[in-house]
Amino acid sequence: MDKIAICGAGPAGLAMALMLTHAGHDVEMIERFVEPAPVGSGLILQPTGLSVLAELGLYDRIRALGHRIDRLWGTDIGSGRAVLDVRYDAGPGGRFGLAVQRSALFSALHDAVVEARIPILSGRAVCDVRDIAGKPILELADGEQAGPYRLVIDASGARSQLMSRLCHDESTQELAYGAFWATLDAAAMPHEPNALVQRYDKANVMIGVLPVGRLAPEGRDKIAFFWSQKVAEADNVMAAGLDAWKTRIVGYWPETAALLGEIAGWDQLTLARYQHRTLRRPARGRVVFIGDAAHCTSPQLGQGANMALLDAAALARSLREEPDLDAAIAGYCRARRYHVRLFQLLSRMFTPFYQGDSAALAFMRDQVVSTLARIPPAPRLLASIVAGTLLDPFASAGVAEHAWARD
Ligand SMILES: Cc1cc2nc3c(=O)[nH]c(=O)nc-3n(C[C@H](O)[C@H](O)[C@H](O)COP(=O)(O)OP(=O)(O)OC[C@H]3O[C@@H](n4cnc5c(N)ncnc54)[C@H](O)[C@@H]3O)c2cc1C
Question: Quick check: is 289 in a domain?
Answer without folding.
Answer: yes
